[in-house]
Q: What sequence folds into this?
């Protein structure tokens, strides 16, 4: 099961069972243990990997327990503290997790109520757990852009250095998004002055500042509505009849205008497209990675532009393959054991998405 499928299945389970879960223990059994096993890929029946009710004496605190410790050999990978589903999660109510983190050799911790999973690291100070998470998975509002980063936390792909390197970017991008959202909703005087300085040389008197504050709020509202409409139009375009991809050569572009009615986009192709979108989301907007099917391949494009291919899926043959384009539009072919094998080429896909974004 791929990570996006595992998360979708767990989200469906949460929606179904959340109304009848009344205790923390039931939350662990119904949601958190399946998360550890199905999403992160650890064997919850093997005490060498997953230790429930892990106990360690911490200073004057004796016999305190953290709900789960995930290990590989003698090394800690994650400490997990659980709360009952529906409860707000905050480090103020997880003091033992913070203490355990600070005295063990673990680099990462998870605080969860079974529906929201907050991932913590030690970015601000060595051997001290950060006050804010670097990544949050909310099963009621899934952001597929974190899938590539979540994949790095799984048992088979765990790499502490890679996780730490991406954690800093994830953390500060999330905080910047929150700051921008707050400014767009209720612009501060500093933000209004900054934007006003781009469009006028007028002195910022109280009256001028008040006027521009209203105009910035109006402009922000219009911008967000325009972006929402653009994404809706993009989604509607994808639901229309599928047309073949335009060849890269100019000489062949006219021949691609004819719609081929017998093209069928398969479940495997849609799954492959979603994996590529999840991988590319580290570099580009999730909705900017689009699909166009053709008779002999399924094209994955940047901003629905045939001149900007990310990859092509060749699933109509005995050995499925993926073709990933480089900066010179050369198509580099890779055989796949399964659709999930696309994750093995994540770095190439991200590099291509990054190139198209910046070009």
A:
């Amino acid at each position: 099961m791929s990570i996006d499928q595992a998360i979708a299945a767990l989200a469906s389970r949460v929606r179904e069972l959340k109304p009848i879960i009344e205790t923390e223990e039931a939350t662990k059994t119904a949601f958190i243990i399946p998360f550890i096993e199905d999403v992160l890929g650890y064997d919850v029946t093997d005490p060498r990997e997953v230790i429930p009710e892990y106990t360690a004496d911490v200073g004057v605190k004796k016999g305190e327990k953290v709900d789960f410790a995930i290990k590989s050999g003698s090394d800690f990978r994650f400490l997990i503290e659980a709360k009952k589903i529906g409860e707000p999660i905050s480090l103020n109510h997880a003091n033992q997790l913070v203490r355990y983190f600070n005295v063990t050799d673990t680099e990462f911790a998870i605080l969860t109520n079974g529906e929201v999973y907050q991932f913590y690291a030690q970015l601000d100070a060595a051997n001290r757990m950060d006050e804010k998470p670097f990544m949050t998975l909310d099963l009621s509002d899934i952001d597929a852009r974190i899938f590539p980063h979540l994949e790095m936390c799984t048992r088979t792909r765990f790499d502490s250095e890679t996780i730490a390197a991406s954690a800093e970017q994830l953390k500060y991008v999330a905080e910047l998004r929150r700051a921008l959202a707050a400014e767009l909703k209720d612009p501060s005087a500093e933000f209004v002055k900054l934007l006003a300085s781009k469009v006028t040389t007028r002195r910022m008197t109280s009256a001028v500042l008040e006027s521009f504050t209203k105009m910035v709020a109006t402009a922000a509202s219009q911008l967000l509505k325009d972006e929402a409409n653009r994404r809706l139009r993009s989604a509607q375009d994808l639901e229309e009849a599928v047309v073949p991809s335009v060849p890269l050569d100019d000489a062949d572009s006219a021949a691609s205008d004819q719609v081929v009615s017998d093209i069928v986009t398969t479940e495997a192709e849609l799954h492959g497209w979603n994996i590529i979108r999840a991988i590319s989301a580290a570099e580009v907007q999730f909705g900017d990675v689009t699909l166009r099917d053709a008779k002999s391949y399924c094209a994955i494009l940047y901003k629905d532009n045939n001149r900007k291919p990310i990859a092509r899926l060749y699933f109509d043959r005995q050995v499925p393959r993926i073709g990933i384009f480089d900066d010179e539009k050369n198509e580099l072919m890779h055989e796949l054991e399964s659709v999930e094998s696309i994750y093995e080429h994540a770095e190439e896909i991200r590099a291509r998405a990054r190139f198209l974004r910046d070009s």
In short: DSSP finds nine helices and eleven strands in the chain. Confidence is low (pLDDT under 50) at residues 238-261. The CA atoms of residues 173 and 179 lie 10 Å apart. The radius of gyration is 24 Å.
